[in-house]
Specification:
The protein has 122 residues and is mainly alpha-helical. Helix content is 75%, strand content 0%.
Amino acid sequence: MDSRNYQLHISIVVFTFIVILIIGTFMFKYLEDWTYIQSFYFSVTTVTTVWYWDLVPTTDVSRLCLAIYILFSVTLYISTAAVLWNWYLEKFSRKRENILEKYSEILEKYHVVKKKREKNEK
């Protein structure tokens, strides 16, 4: 995937993730009558699966909404992490290849990397 597609893909996933956090914040603010800070905190700890049990849903409706929210938000959180991780690995891999190509003689001389075999050699 080229850099442009990665940027677009990352932008879409991160934007969607932020929207999910905003939806969760407003949903729990409305359902539980918490402050915006408490609602945002609850949304983030729910999405990241780090739940301290200091805030818990108190009604059946909010528990049902929480269950649906968990299904969507945790899945999206994992997707966001995967996209960002793949982008990082791709970027690191390209940098590594550029460094190996640029300094291949020095690295081979000091036995950091093995010499490339010629096509005719076995």
